[in-house]
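Mods, move this if it's the wrong board.
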Amino acid sequence: MRRCPLCFLVIGMILRLTPIAATSEEMLSVSAIDVYLAKAVEDWQVPGLAVAIVQADRVIFSKGFGVRETGTDNLVDENTLFAIASNTKAFSAAALAMLVEEGKVDWDDPVTKYLPHFRLYDRYVTEDIRIRDLLCHRSGLGKFSGDLLWYGTSYSPDQILKRMEHLPQAGRFGRSYHYNNLMYVAAGEVIAKVSGLSWGEFIQTRILAPLEMSRTVTSTRRLGECENVAVPHKTATKGNIALPWYNWDNAAAVGGIISSTADMTHWIQLQLRHGNVADGVRLFSEESSREMWRPHTLIEISDKSRKRFPSTHFLAYGLGWGMRDYKGHKILSHGGGYDGMYSRVVLVPEKDLGIVVLTNSMTSLPSVVCKHVLDQVLGGKQTDWSQLMLADFKEDREKYDQRVAEAVTPRLANTSPSLPLEQFAGIYRDVMFADVTVEVIDEKMVLRFAINNDLVADLIHMHLDTFEVRWRHEFAWFDGGNVQFRLDNKTNVTGFELDIPNDDLWFHEMHFKRVP
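Not the wrong board. C-alpha cells:
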C-alpha cells in the first residue's frame, strides 16, 4: 500500500503548505486549502477537524484544526482519534472479499447457510438473500429500520438478528435502495462464523496490522489505553455539547472503527492500489476491488440533486462504498455518523486521489471539505460549498427544533389524565424491543427500557393521556418527544405509542402493549 508510512507522513507534513502538482495539467494549492479549512472551522463553529489528502504515493496534506474538546486548548492533529462510524462498512466488505478469495465463503451463498437463525419479513427473501446483498442496501428493509435494536442495547448480534423478522418491508428486495445497518450486523456475524475470529479480531489482525494502522481500534473499550482522543460533541442550535463516547460493540461491523487521519491514509492508499500493500503483499485482489467498486444497487437522483450536481448522471451503492459520477469522473465515497462525530472518505481512482475528513461534531462540514477539494482538482465550475451547505444545515436545524417543539407543546389547555397515574403504571411489551416499565415515583411517572439503561425518561403531563418525554440522558440523535397511552372502551390502559422526532432512530417502529 505505502512504501514507508512514517516517511511519507513526515514528507506530507513538510509539504502540506506547498503547492503540489495534482496532475501534469493542474495544480492543487495545498496552502489555499489550509486557509479554506481554517475559515470553515470558524464559520461552522465546530470544535475540531482533521483532514488528510493522498495523491498516488504521497500524503500531500495532513493537518488538524481546532480542539479535541470545546472549552479546552487540547489541539487536534493528524494522530487524533475519531470515530469513523459507517466508513467502517468498507472494512467489513474488504474482510468478506478476503474470505471469498480464501474460498471460505462465496458472494452468492445464501446468508442462512452461515446464519440459520437469520429471518426477514418474508420467507422467500429470507431464503434468497445472498452474502453480497448484505453489503449493498437492497434487503427491502427501510432506511435505518431496526437501529434501536442495537443502539445502546444489551442485545448481542445474534439476538438482534433473531428479532429482525418483525420489521416491516419498505421496498422490493434486490431492487430498492434503503440504507440499512442491520445487514452489516449480519455481515459481521458471517465474518466471525467463517473466519473463526470475532469481527474485531479479524479487522485488527488481518487488515489494521498489515497496514500498520497502529493507533486504530475497533471498540470504545480500547480508548482507555489511548492518548490524543477527540471528545464527541452534539451539535445544537445554541452550540456544541460534549458527550461521553457511546459503545457500539454489538454493531461493530456497522461503524465500530476509531481512527486518525494519519492511519486512514494507509487505508486510502490500499484502496487506490486495489488491495496491494506497499511491499507487494496483497490484502485483496484487483478483481475484488472491482467487485466492491461496482454498482450493485442504483439510487434515485432527487430533483434537488439534479439541480445542484448537473454533471452527475448516476448514483449507486457497491459493497461498502457509494458511487457517482462528478465532472466526468467516477467518485467513490462514504460518510459516517457516530454520536457526536461525523466523517467522510472520498476516492477518485482516475486521479489517484483520496480524501479523509474526521470531525468531533455533527455537521455537513466533512462533505463540504471533500466537495471543495474535488472542485480544486477536477476544475470546472467552482462552488462555494461552505456557504451553500451551511445555509442548508441551519435551515435543517431550525426545522428539527420546530419538530421537537411541536411534539412537546400541549394542544389542549386545562386537561387531566383520564385515570389516576397509578393505573398507567405497569409493564409494556413490544414483540421486537422487549419490555419497558412505567412507574409512579413521588407522584410522577418514569419510563424505563429494559434493553437500554440510558432510555429512562420522566413523563410530564401535556394534555389528556399524552405525556412529554424528558430523557435523563443527553442523546446525540434525538431530544424530547411524547408518549400517547391507549385506552379501551372499558377505560383500561392497553398500550402506548412514542413520538420522538429525529432522522435516524425510529421510535415509531415500537408498538407497546400492556402485559396483563
